């Protein structure tokens, strides 16, 4: 079985092209790490790593030109380059770097976990997989094990990456590896926050991520990642995450007509590597903490503006009024206002409210059904246009027209206005006399 997988890999057009170019350059090429691991696990891999034995700086560039791809240096000093072929779901990435340590054996000893300390000689074709640390046995057993006592000290982000591999592969940490983590947790402070964030959000994107978030907390890593302000009331955080994950695992049962569109929405990347799904999980963990604490968390995790905004929408102390309207006021107009004002977090707010028992499943289905089949983000705006507002008020353009429109928008989002006539009556009462509080 293993031999068949190797033959299939070596017969691929891209690998054959690379082999031909490497032979011309007189360079030995090893496929290393995750590419070998995923090959053995029958997992599709769009990112292949190659270690080169022999100096040929032009090999990656020649491969890019011959394959019709793009080449760029990740680290020109260390001769670490990347070739990208295709786009979207068909995109393939090939990383090339010189052997670390001088030989493939020394290179593998420097790697993070035994399941990644595997190599296959591509050029010239070798006899099989090079496995110095029983990585193949750990693959079969589903174990994440460090390669050496210095694994975490050499790159502390591996502390979190161990759980990421466990989560994405469905593996467990070896007892010896888990025992090492609390003693090395302080090293995480040395790592760029962006690298830690990327590992965390890849864990959150796993459907059943709660067990691994629990393990991050138990080993002392979680407070260092998100700050101590979010880990004091840890049990409620776990309960919220658990309820949300259970709901997300049963989308088809809860939303039989719209679960496909919901799944697509959850996969939407708010920014590179951060999906609506992972931000929704994060909000369930943090709970309703308000914009200031979310802003502090966003700084700690180096979130971009779009992710920060979505997280603030999901973590505010009170849900949008439009989501809490009684059934008779859940009109198309009110739902339109909700989704327009809360974009892109509207559907996530519905799911969060349902998981928390704040809205009924019937109400959630009504909101989701409207969004999936009727909502048009570019649709009609207010019941009254700016010109209509000026006519009603008997004035020309000015700031007061914008203020009137803002009050109308808030009233419509609360379900207080559901027709043009009601909008006109609202303005007569609230703008033609004196401002009155909405409520």
TrEMBL record:
Q: Does the keyword rRNA-binding apply?
A: no
Q: Which SUPFAM superfamilies match?
A: Nucleotidyltransferase, Poly A polymerase C-terminal region-like
Q: Does the keyword Metal-binding apply?
A: yes
The family database entries (Gene3D superfamilies) matched by this protein are listed as: Beta Polymerase, domain 2, cca-adding enzyme, domain 2
Domain (Poly A polymerase head): residue spans on this chain:
29-145
Q: Where is the tRNA nucleotidyltransferase/poly(A) polymerase RNA and SrmB- binding domain?
A: 170-224
Please give the name of this protein: CCA tRNA nucleotidyltransferase
The UniProt entry, under Pfam families, shows: PolyA_pol, PolyA_pol_RNAbd
Q: Which residues cross the membrane?
A: none
Family membership: Belongs to the tRNA nucleotidyltransferase/poly(A) polymerase family.
What is the originating organism of this protein?
Geomobilimonas luticola
Task: List keywords of the entry alphabetically.
Answer: Magnesium, Metal-binding, Nucleotide-binding, Nucleotidyltransferase, RNA-binding, Transferase, tRNA processing, tRNA-binding
Name the cofactor(s). Mg(2+)
What superkingdom does the record give?
Answer: Bacteria
